[in-house]
Amino acid sequence: MKNSIVWLASYPKSGNTWLRIFLANYLANSPKPLGINQVQLFGFGDSKPQRYQQVAGGRVDTSNPHATLQLRARVLQAIVANNADVNFVKTHNIRGDAMQVELIPAKFTRSAIYVIRNPLDLVLSYARHYGLTPEKTVEAIGRSDNANAPDASTTWQFLGTWSEHVKSWTHGTRFPVLPLRYEDMLDTPHESFSEALEFLGITPDPDRLDRAIRFSSFDELSKQEEKSGFTERSPHSERFFASGKSGGWKKDLSRDLIDKVRRDHKRMMKKYGYYNV
Q: Has this prediction a pTM greater than 0.85?
């Protein structure tokens, strides 16, 4: 059994999907953009109910966190059993334990790319996606028991606070982790995505890199979603690709909420350059 999982990890609404679509376009090397609903063909999700049902050999009560957690190691083992050198696996789970079950076992893991986004912008995107107010969202990302409840497309996802999540993935890991800031992906995409490829052991081809960046641009993804929809869109939101910019918090988030986010997450915000922007 190979430790072949490369986690594509992030707190929700931080740029995980963008990274996955870029990688899918780069690896496919197609002359046309891949359809956004094809991205699942280039990796796995660690919270897809179908995978838990497959290893269980039947229906699983995904509303019961114990039921899915007891199957989690078998789901990950089934992924690495394909004997591939690399298996990309998307996760929003914290790197820690839930109900005494290890969520991100090192024994299955090759490495991870962790996408970080300014929590002040994340709040607005998170609120739209989950149908919450900014006030409820700021409270949620400051709670250690924050989790995404299951629905038809996902099992339980255990998040913790934004700061706990960032620290769990960027400190003390037993495998290599590349932290990648969402804002750098926006401002310097060629440098940021080249860094991701090099981390994966891929020497970037300039033409292929440029094409994959264009094929995963916000304008392209938004156009595709408008035409064909997107399977990962939340029922609470009209669009998955709603803005794609940074800095919206400066005009859309109240001073009280800005101050609370900065109080709650001061250390991690300072570490990644978000506190004084």
A: yes
Query: Quick count: other Cβ atoms within 10 Å of Cβ 24?
Result: 24
pLDDT at 236: 59
| Integer Cα distance of 204 and 152 in angstroms | 38
- The dihedral over CA atoms of 159, 162, 167, 170, expressed in degrees to the nearest 10, equals 80
* Distance separating alpha carbons of residues 44 and 86, to the nearest angstrom: 11
CA 3 – CA 66 distance, rounded (Å): 25
Q: Which residues pair with 89 in a beta bridge?
A: 7, 44
CATH topology of domain 5-271: Rossmann fold (3.40.50)
| Encoded tokens for 252 | 């859309």
Q: How far is CA 205 from CA 3, 108, 158, 211, in A?
A: 27, 29, 37, 10
Q: Could you tell me the two tokens for 34? A: 């891949």
Q: Is the pLDDT of residue 245 over 80?
A: no
Which region among 8-22, 24-38, 227-241 has the lowest average model confidence (pLDDT)? Answer: 227-241
pLDDT of residue 232: 56
For the chain, the domains span 5-271
In the beta sheet, which residues pair with residue 116?
181
Q: What is the CA radius of gyration of the chain?
A: 18
Write out the two tokens for 92.
Answer: 């929003």
As beta bridge partners, residue 102 has 97
